[in-house]
Amino acid sequence: MEITDLLNRKISLSKTPQRIISLVPSQTELLVDMGLEDSLVGITKFCVHPKHLRKTKTVVGGTKKVHLPKVKNLQPDIIICNKEENTAEMVVELSAIAPVWVSDINSVSDCLRMISDFGKIFEKTKEALQLIAAIEKAKTDFELFISGKPLRNTCYFIWKDPYMVAGKGTFIDEMLQLNHFRNAVDETRYPEIDLADLKKVEVLLLSSEPYPFKENDIEDLKNKFPKADIKLVDGEYFSWYGTRLINAFAYFKSFHKSF
After folding, report:
1. Count of domains in the chain?
2. 40 lies in a domain?
């Protein structure tokens, strides 16, 4: 079987994969929700959902660096990666061990395509269709909820010292748009910023990951942006794709009611 990943790379599989290594936390959660937990043999130390997984599966490293001998010993039929979370060098090294499928997720549409592809690759088409329908329904319901709310200039912080934010063209940026938050940063990806360059920002969102912003960070920024709404947000709901999206839209509804 020949498959194409989201980077348009051609991958050959001799059979339906029975031994899966996932090096992307949100995609690990998706695979479990598709009924593939028993087929997962290796994960990263950041694969925290479901919580018990790190006790029952082999942890092969992080998202930027893995223990290649551990990966090889697990004899995977396929390794699941992501363009943004894993490195190109990792993909090359892992490809010498097993076929590597790489996602590139910048939108909900990309996420739905990934779920559909997983359905085909792992013979879970029915489960994939059910999950896609659930995400589309949750998204439609949320779009009705948010439709009357104004667009607000927003900056989404992911790191401190130096301050870094989510820029244009990212999955977080799409989540901001769906929430009627207009990204105040014109740069792409995850640029460092000078707070003095932020003009007319109405909302500052401080993510729980990868840097765990706390209440005291709100106070620090309040001195510089006294008129802005500054909120702590659960970063998993803004940056994790896959089945996390179903609950994300419910979280967004609750979050907007806090303004």
Report:
1. 2
2. yes
Cα–Cα distance between 219 and 71 in angstroms, integer? Answer: 44
| Burial of 257 from C-beta contacts in 10 A (0-12 / 13-18 / 19+) | exposed
- Among 178, 188, 172, residue whose Cα is nearest residue 237: 172
Low-confidence ranges of the chain (pLDDT < 70): none
Last residue of a domain, one of 70, 88, 104: 104
Same domain, 152 and 65: no
pLDDT tens for each residue of 215-230:
999 999 999 999 999 9
**Percentage of the chain with pLDDT > 70?**
100
The strand ranges marked E within the chain are 2-4, 10-12, 20-22, 40-43, 58-59, 78-82, 100-103, 152-159, 164-165, 181-183, 203-207, 229-233
CATH number (domain holding residue 76): 3.40.50.1980
The H-assigned helical ranges of 22-165 are: 25-33, 53-56, 68-73, 88-95, 108-121, 125-146
54-103 pLDDT per residue, tens:
999 999 999 999 999 999 999 999 999 999 999 999 999 999 999 999 99
Structural domain including 64 reads 2-104
Residue 112 lies in a domain: no
